[in-house]
Amino acid sequence: MPVWKLHGNGRTVEPGAVVRPDERLNWPATIAVGVQHVVAMFGATFLVPVLTGFPVSTTLLFSGIGTLLFLLVTRNKLPSYLGSSFAFIAPVTAATASAGMGSALAGIVAVGVLLAAVGFIVQFAGIGWIDKLMPPVVAGAIVALIGFNLAPVAWDSYQQQPLPATITLAAIILFSVMFRGFLGRISIVLGVVVGYLVTVVLQLTTGEQLIDFAPVADAAWIGLPEFEIADFASPGTWSVIAMFLPVVLVLIAENVGHVRGVATMTDASVNRSTGRALIADGAATTLAGVFGGSGTTTYGENIGVMAATRVYSTAAYWVAGSAAILLSLSPKIGAVFNTIPPGVLGGVTTALYGLIGIIGIKIWVDNRVDFSRPVNQYTAAVSLVIAIAGFQMAWGDFQLGAIVLGAAAALVIYHLGNLVARLRRTGADDGGPIPAVGQLGGDPR
């Protein structure tokens, strides 16, 4: 069992101080912080299986197990919760429709194995090669195209129940701008609750069955989650796996960003755990995929809780992971989440998928990508149109979907375009970040 040093008096965090990963508050306070992490991760984590048709309880189980595994692999030095990754939604949805859930799980396993392999390389060779392979314009494009590719899925759900969908979407936006701190960060969860209650009221007033509560009544309070084994034997599995591979690039970006964020707020030495973080997330994703859970990633929601509380203790994450495992052992909880009506899902996914796209655009903004350069223009433009339009290519039974085609286009256009432009000295290549704009007017400083 890991041992933590007690921070200060164990009850409070002094102004300007933080509770480091190897420290903890007293156990009642640590448990309270751990519960906050469970609440923070819950909304996003349950949405992925609901949207993809995976069992919610199974996803929660492997989310909790994955978190504990992450803490072990990173030697209890890196605080993180591993929740369901939204990057898997598009390939899982497409794979399940074309080849079944078993093949989709095989794709998740393939991503996990590849991510762990990248982690081993980073552990021994450093992370510089990733920055060269996936510079900001490419990384932003890949993250953005995964979100925008899902737009038709959001519309399919939205149009089934337009009124609840619109109210859900409006509530999410309103809560995000009306509340500060923790409540603002869980605006999506609050919006789902509002949309759900509105749908219940509509069902009571109109008599139309919008939600079926029978499965909730039939479900047991305590029981094991449903397990499904990844299927590598079906003929369509290997063509399905190809559409999952770009997800690896997203998970790398998320994990690296998480490590750097924690290092900035605690200790620069945390950056040394980058390789271990990738290995751990890869192992957790592989384990989840083998037995029927969603692929995992580090969670920004939990970074928000740490920033708000200034508690970076890994002890809180042992509490959170254990709590998720306990929640997963109630089939009734999973049944409740499976009753979320399509209109509510349509409203939340309209916001959520768009936000995934905006995260990619934020990568461009944060790194001041110069879009006056043709290489950067076409890297972003072509990959996004491929994703939004849903391009596909097929060779017999082997198919490549829009996500893999868009990611491949971004990588090829950027690297090949840069090579040609630099050989020809045309100035069309990526010249690096735009210089910061100075003040306008007045005496120079």
TrEMBL record:
Name of this protein: Nitrate reductase
A molecular function (GO) term: xanthine transmembrane transporter activity
GO cellular component assignments: plasma membrane
Keywords of this entry: Membrane, Transmembrane, Transmembrane helix, Transport
Xref: PANTHER family: PURINE PERMEASE C1399.01C-RELATED (PTHR42810)
Membrane topology: Multi-pass membrane protein
Listed Pfam families: Xan_ur_permease
Keyword flag Transmembrane: yes
Organism taxonomic ancestry: Bacteria, Bacillati, Actinomycetota, Actinomycetes, Micrococcales
Location(s) in or outside the cell: Membrane
Family (UniProt): Belongs to the nucleobase:cation symporter-2 (NCS2) (TC 2.A.40) family.
Segments crossing the lipid bilayer: 54-73, 80-99, 105-130, 137-155, 161-179, 186-205, 236-253, 315-337, 343-365, 377-395, 401-421
